[in-house]
Amino acid sequence: MSGSQTPSELPGEGVPSAQKSSWATFLKSIASFSGDLSSLTAPPFILSPISLTEFPAYWCERPDLFAAIADAKTEKDRSIAVLKWFISTLKGQYTSRNEKLGSEKKPLNPVLGELFYGHWPDVNGRGQTNLVVEQVSHHPPITAYYICNPSKGLALQGHSAQKTSFSGGSIIVKQIGHAILAVDLPGGGKEEFLITLPRLRIDGLWYGSPYIELAETSYIQSSSGWLSTIEYKGKGYFSGRSHSFKAVLTPPGSSTAAKKYEGVWHETSKDLDTGETFTDVTTPKEEVTVGPLENMHDFESRKLWQHVARGIREGDYDAASREKSKIENEQRQRRRDEQAAGASWQLLHFEHIPSDPVYERLAKKFNGNPPTEDTYVFKHNHSQTPSVRSVPA
């Protein structure tokens, strides 16, 4: 679902009749809650069967566009290719669950140390793209990820967290974190791109059919000086359509647009100079490939949450709630045991850095706010061969 409701729709119309009471209670708790909403317990029927730790896979569900960045010949063309790839990731990240599940669902809140591994195979010489994800914090929830295509010389490293609040009948989500894309250049050297994240607004709560709109502005700043500024608006702005955006690409040291793009990020957009199609995400995406469940470590997302996910998919919310509580209670006990032993959880694949020098250098070019951010640096300690695992014992 991705639009405004009609006056004839009734409150809670998208809620199963047996769940209307719990949905009403949930709405009241949201409206009266002060602080971060991520700690609230959502009714089981509004839960997604997917853990938040899987979400970084949305960055590369169009691996051809990711690989194409390395084939661009000039700084300008690389910035255009990065912008095209980034806009094309938004549908998967923010509307794909609506199409599968009928409305936006709350992802499963990952446990500390949760892991997710996947890849997209080499097809037609585009190279294999690999993904490593680790839940590096539980309170607040922070997910770190590393995506690379070694044969193309591409590596994306980033982390994301969410700070949520309630305002004007909507949930407002401030996405915290950033991503750095590094591109190996043919003549040696490296070009880097800082990618900031848009804010989200979750509407449709009153009707029990939540959906996401992107809001405000995000940026893609290249170390070469080229800057993409992306402005997001919902229904009633620009073209009068949901999921609208405008993007402007400016050259180093200039505020004059070299390229302009406009459209809806969940369907198509166009180059305003030529009228040609810029992005088209109406074609099928490529799901990430993962190993068999029986070979997974207990902390890998799909194995950890398998019984919860089955309950949600089958509509057995009692079973889903019971299995979810079991996992959460085990985690609470694990934290108590660590505290009693004077120990702390050790990250497996990432190292926390309090200040990211690449972010600081690139954010300065467009007066980015905040001027500095922390980051999680990948340790390069995971085999990129899908059949080989290097996970906790």
- Biggest beta-sheet profile: 13 strands, antiparallel
Query: Can you give the helix content as a percent range?
Result: 10-25%
Order of helices and strands: HEHHHEEEEEEEEEEEEEEHHHEHE
> Got a strand count?
17
Q: Summarize model confidence as the mean pLDDT.
A: 86
Architecture (CATH level 2) name of the domain at 26-280: Beta Barrel
User: What value does the Rg take, in angstroms?
Assistant: 21 Å
User: Structural class, from secondary structure content?
Assistant: alpha+beta
Oligomer: single chain
End-to-end separation? 43 Å
Helical segment tally?
8
CATH topology of the domain at 26-280: Porin
Question: Would you mind describing this structure in some detail?
Answer:
- The protein has a domain of 255 residues: Porin, CATH 2.40.160.
- With 393 residues, the chain is α+β, with helices and mostly antiparallel strands.
- The protein is globular, with a radius of gyration of 21 Å.
- The chain is built from eight helices and 17 strands.
- 23% of the residues lie in helices and 30% in strands.
- The N terminus and C terminus are likely disordered.
- The strands form three sheets. Strands 3, 4, 5, 6, 7, 8, 9, 10, 11, 12, 13, 14 and 15 form a 13-stranded antiparallel beta sheet that branches.
- A hairpin with a 5-residue loop joins strand 7 and strand 8.
- Helix 6 runs antiparallel to helix 7.
Q: What labels describe this entry?
A:
Oxysterol-bd, disordered N terminus, Porin, disordered C terminus, single chain, globular, 13-stranded antiparallel β-sheet, two-stranded parallel ribbon
